[in-house]
Specification:
With 332 residues, the protein is α/β, with parallel strands linked by helices. The chain has helices at 28-31, 38-50, 66-74, 103-117, 136-149, 162-175, 198-205, 248-265, 269-278, 293-300, 309-318, and strands spanning 3-5, 12-14, 16-19, 55-57, 83-88, 122-127, 152-158, 180-186, 209-212, 283-288. The strands form two sheets. Strands 3-4-5-6-7-8-9-10 form an eight-stranded parallel beta barrel, surrounded by five helices. Strands 1-2 form a two-stranded antiparallel ribbon. Strand 7 (152-158), helix 6 and strand 8 (180-186) form a beta-alpha-beta unit.
Amino acid sequence: MEYRNLGRSGLKVPVLSLGTGTFGGTNEFFQRWGQTDVKEATRMVDICLERGIFFFDTANVYSQGASEEILGAAIKGKREKTIIATKGTFKMGEDINRQGSSRFHLLSALEDSLRRLGTDYIDLYLMHGFDSNTPIEETLKTLDNLVTSGKVRYIGCSNFAAWQLMKSLSVSEKHNLAQYIIYQGYYSLIGRDYEQELMPLIKDQGLGLMVWSPLGWGRLTGKIKRNQPVAEGRIQAGGAVGSPPVEDEFLYTVVDALEKIANETGKTISQVAINWLLQNETVSNIVIGARNEKQLIENIDAVGWSLTKEQVTLLNTVTTQTPIYPHWVGKR
């Protein structure tokens, strides 16, 4: 297993972490992702640890707490061997204050996550989204207090716009508060928006990226190909709900290129898609998901080898996106 620093911290993590959005499936939305129970989750955790993957990513909103509970049960007796990331911000109940990044909500949300995970500290606590209703200073001072107390070791954020991340870093610097060390965001061969605004910022500020949905909501698993019905899996189960639209012809062209390289390397389409992400120097970690043990092992085997320069160039070429304003200004 390859290891990299987690963003601007000195913490070493494997380049792959196991995402637990498939754990639980206790509501309609997350049922489409998966319904992994404690027994299967425990087996997945053990496989990861055997292969050098000790980093596990969850969130309180995943199946409204069930994912954290199942992960907590799966790592019982193994907590000291693991690094756990969880998230707060999104709605966790009908009470108007059980959402957002206010001091009121974050303090209770963290305590709930600690209880569900069966631990007294979180290694990485991320804001799951930007809360425009709460002053940035309030959020960051609360997070700083959590770091100082020892209940949280590092903080990060997810799904922020570039300006929201930069402003947060500036506020932390101004008030000498704990800073976000990592950004968790969507990045895949069929979703390269990250490269236009966020990647230059992350390079400049010395952060890193934790990639979520590296296979584009299951579209790059090899189950979707030109002129054939969609095979059983996340997409067929409706797991692409909430994802950005992807034009069919573009997707087929990308999959065609992935299949060509898969045949050259003896790897699978999904392994090639994940390996491409590892060629980006700003990527600290890729959060892989799996509905079962077979998928997990396949995704883990995306590491330990590298695409050639020619193969990377081919994938870059077929997935190039038109720059957004003002990035096209002055370019020919």
